[in-house]
């Protein structure tokens, strides 16, 4: 069970003009990162979860369900962190416990080589509680840096270190369960995953090979693309917007839309909200990551939103994927 309240940070850690700590009742404390014009990112301490990413017009780029509920249940939308497992295996809750715990502001993060021009960022940290250790008997430090770039791009960098003192390695699976806001799922295409092998969660995780052109959506999709390229493009035709998803340290990519039947079955999801969202989730699913004591893994998610123009007839996705 998650602790009742977040760890309130000493004010000196939050002295940046690009960062605001907002206390809220019910464990909903959050950090707001502010960039140029109306660019911003909101992160809830509960779950270390990004719940908003706005562009310089103040438009929301991530999907959050209107029926999302409060702690201690995971929040439907934004970018939930799936750790130490993706999916449901053994006695851990679906997608692991990291998204259901209060993270703390990391007051002493080890140096992370980043672009010095990026001023709007926050470092969070999660360590296992006694209860967590009963469920998953491994000590770890999970450091998460969330950064808003000068151009409005968003990056999440996870560093997970095995701090076991008993010499035991541990293995885990992981995903940045990213919910993108789209105008109309039937007008959306995904480029970059053509011809890739995938495990189909709707067909008993059987392995298939994707067709040779862009992925379109006409029904529920729940696929884990294996050894996917480091860049994937989500083209929203109506919005004339392309999301570019880049990943490092994460071989796989999960693509999910629940469609109508499953949407109706989810309490924290509006019946027709499937039309306005798509999950593309950089992940490590097929091959768990194993760390020996003292070893650290780094996994990075990069998101940008660029205008898509079709007047030229030139497919922007090809530019953003191979440019
Ligand atoms: O990422 C796809 C998936 O594994 C789907 O199978 C579906 O369960 C989705 O995650 C949502 O999971 P959640 O536990 O957040 O309801």
UniProtKB/TrEMBL annotation:
It catalyses: alpha-D-glucose 6-phosphate = beta-D-glucose 6-phosphate. The active site is at 177, 281. Pfam families: Aldose_epim. Its EC number is 5.1.3.15. One of its GO terms (cellular component) is cytoplasm. The keyword Ligase does not apply. It comes from the Eukaryota. One of its GO terms (molecular function) is carbohydrate binding. Substrate binds at residues 76, 94, 99. GO terms for biological process: carbohydrate metabolic process. Keywords: Isomerase. Belongs to the glucose-6-phosphate 1-epimerase family. This is glucose-6-phosphate 1-epimerase. It comes from Triticum aestivum. The gene is LOC123154745.
